[in-house]
Write a structure and sequence with these properties.
It is a single chain. The chain is about 60% helix and about 15% strand. It is α+β, with helices and mostly antiparallel strands. A five-stranded antiparallel β-sheet has the order 2-1-5-4-3. The chain has a five-stranded mixed β-sheet with strand order 7-9-10-12-11, covered by helices on one side.
């Protein structure tokens, strides 16, 4: 059932209930008014003919108007030719009129007005004319109901089509987007709600376009990174296979092949870890971890690697915080940041691993442009921007580090370093904070 039909049905229901309630109220009001008018008319007639009710002409005039005359003797006996009128008069106790005030009453659909006359009295009895009025009212109510339902149906269909038209446009653009189109946008027109829907779809299209563009750039950069070592491995392997390389040259060529194979393995490992970060079964052994021993253990390795490259390494520890993290992944985060810093730092410049209430890795390399710090952790962005001007990695290292830190509940930010390069600051939750969060979730 489409939107137009639903709105039409709702309008029909509202119109039906409104006309029905109005009809019921109107019928009751009109019938009550009719009865009141009939009683007032009969009362005025009784007052007018109270002195001439015994006149035959008066009696004929009253009977011509559908008014029955009931006689009341001085003893209170009620008589008349119309049995229904006599019965109604007795039920109202018209005999009280003898020697008393006028008597008015209703018996069923009969109005009764009694007056004293001579030694006795009389009563006028008339049926309330409501049957014809009732039928006319019902016909009018049904007619109004039909008109109201017809108008409501037309209005509902028109309103539904008017509201559904922009939604159909949105659906059409969404279907085109699912088929691969990214150049379509929805006109932001109509009511506030429809404009919000159109704006949301357009924002989604922009986000998809940006995301797919980044994915294409990322795939291109990864392809380039894969092709370079593969070319080297293939070329040197062919040289070995063809016998071009022999004797003492075999060992250096084997070393080159081994280095390139390890580079390929590192790239594939990073890609697999990055892909697994989005999976629900990505394993994290979270526990309370003393951060200082992990940092000092990493510092021993990276001190040697920095010295081999001619880079000045320094370790600064001012606090020894306990954090809630996975110790193995925590070391992977430090190694990823240190490898990134060492790659871009020229010989003679510093690389600093600092631990206070937060973990910092700073370098004296060329740093980043101010606009690049917010996107430093997006896959392949820095790789695509700087691959022609400085040494770059696989394009996924910082994205992997960011994913690991985020999955462990921490935060990581990038900014300029006092040493002249870039600084990466990592904050992990404290064990008490993590316990409170876990209790809130449970």
């Amino acid at each position: 059932m489409n939107l137009g039909v639903r709105i039409a049905l709702v309008c029909l229901g509202v119109a039906f209930v409104a006309v029905l309630v109005a009809g019921i109220v109107s019928v009751r009001l009109v019938l009550s008014t009719s009865q009141q008018v009939s009683r007032e008319f009969l009362r005025s007639q009784a007052d007018v003919v109270s002195g001439s009710v015994s006149n035959n002409r008066t009696s004929q005039l009253l009977e011509g108007q559908g008014i029955a005359i009931v006689r009341i003797s001085p003893a209170g006996e009620v008589t008349g030719s119309d049995r229904a009128a006599v019965r109604a008069a007795r039920e109202v106790h018209v005999e009280r009129v003898v020697g008393g005030p006028p008597v008015s009453g209703v018996s069923g659909r009969l109005n009764v007005e009694a007056r004293a006359s001579g030694a006795g009295g009389f009563a006028l009895v008339q049926e309330t004319e409501t049957s014809n009025t009732y039928r006319k009212l019902i016909r009018n109510v049904l007619f109004a109901l039909g008109i109201g339902l017809a108008v409501a149906c037309l209005a509902g269909l028109a309103l539904g089509n008017r509201l559904a038209r922009p939604l159909r446009r949105v659906a059409s653009v969404a279907h085109s987007m699912s088929a691969g189109r990214r150049d379509l946008r929805v006109p932001v027109v109509g009511t506030v709600e429809l404009a919000e829907v159109a704006t949301s779809v357009n924002s989604l299209a922009d986000a998809l376009q940006r995301s797919e563009s980044r994915q294409r750039d990322f795939l291109l950069s990864v392809s380039h990174e894969l092709r370079t070592p593969l070319t080297a491995v293939t070329g040197f392997a062919e040289s070995l296979a063809d016998g071009v390389v022999t004797g003492s040259q075999v060992a250096p060529v084997g070393g080159v092949i081994l280095d390139e194979a390890r580079r390929l393995d590192r790239l594939v490992t990073d890609l697999l870890d990055l892909a697994r970060l989005g999976a629900d079964d990505f394993r994290l052994d979270m526990a309370a971890v003393a951060l200082e021993p992990v940092v000092r253990s990493a510092a021993e390795v990276w001190h040697a690697r920095c010295n081999a490259r001619g880079v000045t390494f320094s370790l600064s520890v001012t606090e020894s915080p306990m954090v809630w993290a996975d110790a193995r992944r925590l070391r992977q985060v430090i190694d990823g940041l240190m490898e990134n810093a060492l790659r871009v730092t020229p010989p003679g410049s510093p690389v600093v691993l600092a631990l206070s209430s937060v973990l910092e890795v700073r370098d004296g390399g060329p740093g980043l442009a101010p606009d690049d710090y917010p996107v430093a952790f997006d896959r392949g962005v820095l790789h695509a921007r700087y691959q022609e001007s400085r040494p770059v990695g696989t394009g996924v290292g910082l994205a992997l580090v960011h994913g690991l830190v985020t999955r462990m509940g921490g935060t990581i930010t990038a900014g300029p370093a006092p040493e002249g390069g870039a600084a990466f600051t990592v904050t992990f939750p404290q064990p008490s904070d993590a316990t409170q969060q876990l209790q809130q979730l449970l």
